User: Fold this.
Amino acid sequence: MKTKFKDLLDDKFASNFVANTKIYDLGRQAEIVQKIAQEQIDENGEHAKIHCSNIVDWMQDIADMAQKALDIQLEKE
Assistant:
């Protein structure tokens, strides 16, 4: 995600800090799951690719949505 946690600590975003951190956590967790699935594909080849390739795409979509939500939240303030 392009937003870093330290960006959320800025005083101008304090009014929505709880919501912003939950959105951030969602995006980060999606990125972590995506990374694990990609590592399985890289290590285990075709067998893992069948099971993990969709997970990589879904988690990237979730991380992207979380980033867009943060962008909207941070622009409002």
About this structure: The longest helix spans residues 17-76. The helical segments are 5-8, 17-76. The chain has a mean pLDDT of 84.
